[in-house]
Structure formats: C-alpha cells, structure tokens
Amino acid sequence: MNGFTIIGTGKMGSAIAALAERGGASVQSVAHGEHVDVFTGDVVVLAVPYEALGEVAARFSEQLAGKVVVDITNPVDLAEGRRREIKAGSAAAELTTRLPQSRVLKAFNTSFAATLASGELTADGAGSAPATVLVAGDDADAKSALLDVVEAAGAQGIDVGLLARARELEATGYLQLSLALGEAVPWTGGFTLVR
C-alpha cells in the first residue's frame, strides 16, 4: 500500500504530498472541487478544512469505500477563537459515520505545513528535530501503512492508539495553532516527542 491520493492542493495538501513522495509513495493530487472518477491511492488524505469534510465525504463516498481515509482537520472557529464542539467527539469520529466502508485515521493535524514540507521542526536557538506525525485509528494495518511512509520520509511517526484519541489530537492541534497565532512558537516549530 504505497499510493496516496491527496484531496486538497493548499499548503497542507502540498506538504503531505511532498512527504509521501519522499517516503517512496506515488501521489495523485486532486484539487478540492475537481471531479475525479478514480482515486489511484489506497490512502486518501482529506487535506480540506473541517467545514468541507461532509461535502467531500458525500461526493466521493463510492470512491472512498475500501480506502484508508486520513482526516487532517482541526475543527476550529477562527472567528470566535475556539474549538468547535463535535457531537461525535471528534471530526474523525464524525467522518466514520459518513464513510462506514472506509478505514478512517486521524493524522497530520498536529503538524504545520512547513514542518511536513521540510521534514523537521526548527526554532531560533533550539536546533531542529524530525517532524512528528501522530496517528490515531482503529485499523492497525492502515496505521502501519501510513506510519511506514511517514518514517521512510524521515519524519517521526507515532501510533497514539485508537481513533477515540482523535479528540485529544484535535485539542493538541488547536493548542499548537493558538500558540503559533500568538507568536509563541514559529510556524516552522511545534510539538515533538523525545523517545
């Protein structure tokens, strides 16, 4: 399983595509709103805003059946400056109800595009560390396939457990985003784990 389809060609979609290519995966990039009959990747990354998840899931539900679907969103209301409350617990859990025939993972939401694109976190005077990608999901094989590509790209991939952990990943993503918006951390920095 080494093919990726990335829906979304913005900063995050482009950075994840670059990471996947560094990890040896073939990549199909699809612009949000573009019509595609066939997704070539076994792993489909939804690099779209949270508000677009429902529309993308409805539009591509047949093409996504049987695929590993990666939700990278952080449900944040930037105008209000707060996290959105999700009835299902997380955007990823909500997505599983929309795509019951897909294997949903939560990943990439705790990383900035710059760190994924370069493969490392950097901060003034603090040196550098490999970019860290935290992955949650209920399907061990799906997580393993994603983590293999992440690690082959030179990043640090960490399995954080079941998809229920997506709630904590989204909280971590919101915290990191808040810190960067407040200029407490640079957009080239972020969280990592030392093991």
Automatic annotation (TrEMBL):
Top-level taxon of the source organism: Bacteria
List, alphabetically, the InterPro entries matched.
NAD(P)-bd_dom_sf, P5C_Rdtase_cat_N, STEAP_metalloreductase
Keywords assigned by UniProt, alphabetized = Oxidoreductase
Q: What is this protein called?
A: NADPH-dependent F420 reductase
**Pfam (any one):** F420_oxidored
**Residues in Pyrroline-5-carboxylate reductase catalytic N-terminal domain copies:** 17-75
Organism of origin: Promicromonospora vindobonensis
Gene3D superfamilies the record matches? NAD(P)-binding Rossmann-like Domain
TM helices/strands, residue ranges: none
